[in-house]
Amino acid sequence: MNDDLRDHLARELAQQDARGLRRNLTGRGDGLADFTTNDVLGLARDPEVAAAIAAAALEHGAGTAASRLLGGDHALHRAAEGVCADWLQADAALLFPSGFQANLGLLQAFAEPGVLFVSDAANHASIVDGCRMARAARAHVVVSAHRDVAAVERALKHAAHAPRRFVVTESVFSMDGDRAPIEALLDVCERHDAHLVVDEAHAVGLLGPRGAGVVSELAERGLDVSRVAARLVTGGKALGQSGAFVVGDSTLRAWLIQRARSLMFTTAPPPALAAGLIEAIRRARTADAARSTVLRNARRLAAALALPEPDAAIVPFVVGSSERALELAQRAREAGLDVRAVRHPTVPRGTERLRLVVHAFNTDAEIDRLMARLRDEARHATRSASPSIGTARALAVVGTDTNVGKTVVSALLMRHARARGTARYFKPVQTGTDSDTRTVARLAGLAAVEWLAPLHELPLPASPHEAAAAAGVTLDPDALLDGIARARENARDAALVIELAGGLRVPYTLRFDQGELLERAALPLVLVARSGLGTLNHTQLTLEALRRRHLEPRALFLVGEPHPSNAATLRALAHVEHVYEVPQFLRLNTEALDAWLAQNDLEPVLSPRPNPSIR
Ligand code: PMP
Questions:
Q1: Are the CB atoms for 88 and 230 separated by under 8 Å?
Q2: CB atoms within 10 A of CB 163
Q3: Cα torsion 181, 185, 186, 188: sign
Q4: Cα 528–532–538 angle (5° rounding)?
Q5: pLDDT tens digit string along 277-303?
Q6: CA distance 272 to 269
């Protein structure tokens, strides 16, 4: 490696360090009680599973050294698939080298132009990346709020003309440990002719008949689960090894062999892995006693920490900052407990946590020790567990371009919000001498306490990076993000409308633009576009760029001369939940805003349905 590249990487790493976000490879904490791995049934340390792997390796060799399509396929792979399909009472299964690859391959194989994927906001990174690949194949992806069935339904309704619709969810979420409303999702899928993809990584082994997962549980209760197009079973969680099965119809299996690039172009797993999985499934099927122990202990731990009752083995203990999470994990380690911090960007900023995983082999004494360690902290942490408690309900107002009407939309949002409770307006970076803060304050009739002063007021009417240079300052991305985080804390419990600058690719510095700011601040947002000529292109390009960052606007505002055809086209194409039209007001004043608000309800944008999860 040459010096330039090494220096660059070293600088970036130093920044990760400075933000407390440096990640390290770590092994099992030797001699510590395991509250971190996903080996909930203890099968990773099971001698019989290990013996099955060893015997198969001796008999069939170390590995395959070929793709399953080019000589790497083995009878043991197919045997493991049969055992897994039988366990889940399904037609067929297909073994991938990992769950990450299985999700990528599955979503990519379903993706075609115009197909819709609705993905839960808390879905695993492999689903997020699978959706990104689907987008590259010109599928549409809508990210729905966590466990929000109504949002899923709205997205499906908007996509009635899509060739196919898929709803993608985990059955037990990996970071929050809560269960997806699978029954309600099945119902919505049935009514809107959509298909459900269920990642059962954290459910299989623990929930359902013989540990066969949530979908099996519903099937056993007599529900029609034919809307489930595919389930994912990972070998690296309760089965204690690695690899993953996509479980479903034999036609799906055949299709994946044609289409799933993460299967076609990767080396087949060693036959010994398949042998290990067969043995692990055999053990998991009869592990009812271990399952009850895990669930009972997870509930006992959660109750002691005043947390909601967990649905499976994962107990998320939210502390709200990376530093605190790291410090607590370190203190737990000193007490002999292997507990790990989960930080942003794995979880949203402000929900940094200890992800506690309870295992069948954890002793009562170990669990008591963990409870004792965390109980004091719990008294403090439960107060700040949710970012929606004690911090502002923030909403960013983003434009497709400059001068599209963000300020009017901000004023409308503020006018609506202050009539229903406390509201604050914040424009972090003001460029030009016409102050948007003053305009919004005038239009929405704000008192001085209802707006926060900008972090920067830069007189040149130009992009923030240029206006900053002209004023002799440099904008610091971390300081901007801290400023926004502080505004959210200070505007406690209020609705906080944050008006951002220009369009998405507007630079704050040459290496940090609006899109990155939105992504890193993890702000909910609305998109403002002009209603007239050119908006179809600009709006869809902006939506594409937002969604590539996994950002989903709650609403689209079309501002200016009414253009019914554009509004209708965007309602059909944009897949945004709410589309509002805001005319050019003859007189731009409070009365005009109130007249518009009398005809249009902004409540679903400012206060979407309460979210049952910790997010
Ligand atoms: N899906 C979910 C829900 C997961 O939690 C994980 C692993 N953390 C995966 C998929 C990926 O599985 P693997 O580790 O086998 O790649």
A1: no
A2: 11
A3: positive
A4: 55
A5: 999 999 999 999 999 999 999 999 999
A6: 8
- Quote the strand ranges of 463-594, DSSP E: 495-499, 507-509, 512-513, 525-530, 555-559, 578-582
Q: Give nearest CA residue, ligand 1 atom 9.
A: 99
Q: Are strands 116-120 and 140-144 parallel, antiparallel or unpaired?
A: parallel
Tokens 């005043």, residue? Answer: 306
Q: What is the pLDDT of residues 216-244, one digit of tens each?
A: 999 999 999 999 999 999 999 999 999 99
d(CA 406, CA 197): 37
Residues of each domain in the chain carrying CATH 3.40.50.300? 394-606
Known catalytic residue: 450?
Answer: no
User: Is 237 known to be catalytic?
Assistant: yes
How open is the CA angle 600-604-609, to the nearest 5 degrees? 160
Closest atom of ligand 1 relative to the 38 alpha carbon = 8
For residue 398, the one-letter residue type is V
Q: Where in the chain is CATH 3.40.640.10?
A: 61-285
**Structure confidence at residue 380 as a pLDDT band (50, 70, 90):** low
Ligand 1 centre distance from Cα of residue 361 (Å): 22
* Catalytic residue list contains 74: no
Distance 146 CA to ligand 1 centre (A): 18
Give the percent of the chain with pLDDT over 90: 77
DSSP state at residue 313: S
Ligand 1: residue whose CA is nearest its atom 12: 99
CATH number assigned to the domain covering 394-606: 3.40.50.300
Q: What is the 234 CA–ligand 1 centroid distance (Å)?
A: 7
Average pLDDT for residues 431-456, to the nearest whole number? 94
Per CATH, which fold does 61-285 belong to?
Aspartate Aminotransferase; domain 2 (3.40.640)
Please say if the pLDDT value at position 615 is more than 60. Answer: no
| Cα angle 139, 147, 606; round to 5 | 90
| Active site (annotated) includes residue 120 | no
Phi, psi of 509 (to 5 degrees): -140, 175
Which pLDDT value is given to residue 84?
98
- Catalytic option among 199, 217, 279, 516: 199
Q: Residue 211 and residue 218: Cα distance in Å, rounded?
A: 13
pLDDT bin (cut points 50, 70, 90) of residue 414 is very high
Q: In this predicted structure, what is the pLDDT of residue 391?
A: 62
- Is 600 part of the annotated catalytic residue set? no
Handedness of CA 202, 85, 186, 195 (dihedral sign): positive
**Considering 158, 202, 416, 563, which one is annotated as catalytic?**
202
38 part of the active site: yes
Separation CA 461–CA 457 (nearest Å): 10
How does the average pLDDT of the chain come out, rounded? 92
**Residue in 81, 120, 153, 170 annotated catalytic:** 170
Residue 492 has pLDDT above 80, yes or no: no
> Residues 124, 427, 456, 578: which is the catalytic one?
124
Active-site residue, 170 included: yes
Cβ < 6 Å from ligand 1: which residues?
A: 98-100, 103, 124, 126, 170, 174, 199, 201-202, 234, 236, 242, 244
Instruction: Give the residue from 568, 574, 579, 585 showing the smallest Cα distance to 602.
Output: 579
DSSP tag of 38: S
CATH architecture of 27-38+288-384: Alpha-Beta Complex (3.90)
- pLDDT for 247 beyond 60: yes
For CATH 3.90.1150.10, list the domain ranges present in the chain.
27-38+288-384
